[in-house]
Amino acid sequence: MAQITLQDLAYELNISVSTVSKALKGYPDVSEKTRKLVIELADKLNFSPNVVASNLRTQHTKIIGVIVPTIVHHFFSNVIGGIINEAEKNGYMVILLQSNEDFEMEKKQLNLLVQQQVDGILISLTVETKNFEHLERIQQRGIPLVMYDKVAKAIDCSKVIIDDKKASYDAVSYLIRKGYKRIAYFGGSMVALNFSNRFLGYKQALEEYRIPFDDSLVYICDTSDEYNDGYNNASELIKKHGIIGVDAAFAVTDVIAVGITKYFNTHNISIPKDVAVFGFSNWFMSSVVTPPLSTVNQPGYEMGKKSIEILLKEIAQSKDKKEIVHERIVLPTTLEIRQST
Amino acid sequence: MAQITLQDLAYELNISVSTVSKALKGYPDVSEKTRKLVIELADKLNFSPNVVASNLRTQHTKIIGVIVPTIVHHFFSNVIGGIINEAEKNGYMVILLQSNEDFEMEKKQLNLLVQQQVDGILISLTVETKNFEHLERIQQRGIPLVMYDKVAKAIDCSKVIIDDKKASYDAVSYLIRKGYKRIAYFGGSMVALNFSNRFLGYKQALEEYRIPFDDSLVYICDTSDEYNDGYNNASELIKKHGIIGVDAAFAVTDVIAVGITKYFNTHNISIPKDVAVFGFSNWFMSSVVTPPLSTVNQPGYEMGKKSIEILLKEIAQSKDKKEIVHERIVLPTTLEIRQST
């Protein structure tokens, strides 16, 4: 039988590694009940505290596991690019798994990465992920975990994100200062923290500039079909409000914005004269379409690079049995203004 | 020590599993020299032929390894989509590795997949891959291997491809029949079989219609920067030949074609009136740009789906110790004609 580790005890009892360690060492801040449970289990499993050093996860595969919700998206492929290039420089290989915005798949894939003995995990959560036990289990095993883009507030780990609310607020404020008043919002699923924050930013800008919020100007687009949803929702928007009733459309991704643009271009709606269009992410195609799109610079490559830099640091700290201090990195976003506004 | 398998003997001697098997069974079509080598090694390693059944690779992880040259490309993301969806239906998980068009990385990643004990491997080769020993080693280990898109003629395995030469020939013939005579070719690295075949198709069409081949109309674009290379080479093309000296541009990917389109659109060159543009792959953006691009329908999703269907079949055949008959699937391509020609 393989040597029992502190992580195994923590996992079995569903408590943190540090609690197990403190219980075994007789620290006073561990409850008597917990202390007894730990000692009984350690005894039963022949845990040997005298080899604490070797009990720490010492197997290093030089492999990182990365879970992305989707690969078929320019933003995530930029993030992956940043991760892979930085990994290569540090002699690490990257196993990529696509969760396909499916919570069950995300859980299976985390298990797979544990099986495959990766040294650390980078993950952006699915739009469906509402509870986080599967992530806690990873941490209990002592596997370094860093989240990027779609993160969980409830999990204490390093995170690399953008300030989605501010980015959205900046874009919508810009439109308002340019004189637009009837601004439609083309968003994503509100379960996802980043999309709900972008919606809050939109509302905050309207509120600050005293523009009444009109929920009939809000459309939700499916992440798996952004282009078509952008196109079709633009059609709905014009049917409902006409060119008079709306003067700008802000979309939470450039692919949605391109869908909106295509609808307007093929229905004699002039951009920006009739309706301005503002996107998000600065996909290379946003500068190519007619007219070129104003958008939010979303630093995908840097997000990937920063995420793995932090992960590699935590892997090293874990290996050297140093204390791991988590970081929360908020990457700046800027506006890219082009001819669509 | 783990039980020695037929695969281990084959790997050590750098010969096929079937040769090892035949040598041990005393088949006459194995040379005496080979037979001796096999028997000596089997003896030395305590190989036991009475447990042939258990010597076949029996560990099944229900994991497939997929190597793609690049993920940040719509064609490959469609292929991955086809693979992943079909894998899921069959209860398999997919480990994705991006070789980044780097031959050394491709080799390392194949080793990684062997380490990770995947049940089978799908691979599209890098544009640099000129020798194939690393693939032979995989086969010697008895691991089912299927190639897609960029394949190696020298390796006997199942392959799923398109007829690159015919697809290119069809596109260029179409242009010629429409009256275009000075057709520029925007291609990819000639090391890659699929790109060199597309070039042959271009030349074949010119030849058949008795249009002189002019190598000053040929440009090679880097796969890692297709959009910009398309744009910049279009600029070179016009500098060298002027609008008079060229009437059509055929590009081996839509991303290149979009780069060409952007250059023409921003330099008062009318498409198709001054220069027609024809792309390849039918990326969704090819129908979105102005004017919408004519292109070759390249069945990415079906290629992924078919590749893994064959791989799963071969994994099952291998498990049941049935003979594996390799397939060579050539998926049909059609032309999508739009306003750019």
Automatic annotation (TrEMBL), chains A, B:
Q: Which residues form the HTH lacI-type domain?
A: 4-58
Which molecular function GO terms apply here? DNA-binding transcription factor activity; transcription cis-regulatory region binding
Q: Which InterPro entries match?
A: HTH_LacI, Lambda_DNA-bd_dom_sf, Peripla_BP/Lac1_sug-bd_dom, Peripla_BP_I
The answer, when asked if DNA-binding is one of the entry's keywords, is yes
Q: Name one Pfam family in it.
A: LacI
Q: Which UniProt keywords apply?
A: DNA-binding, Transcription, Transcription regulation
Q: Does the keyword Transcription regulation apply?
A: yes
User: What protein does this entry describe?
Assistant: LacI family transcriptional regulator
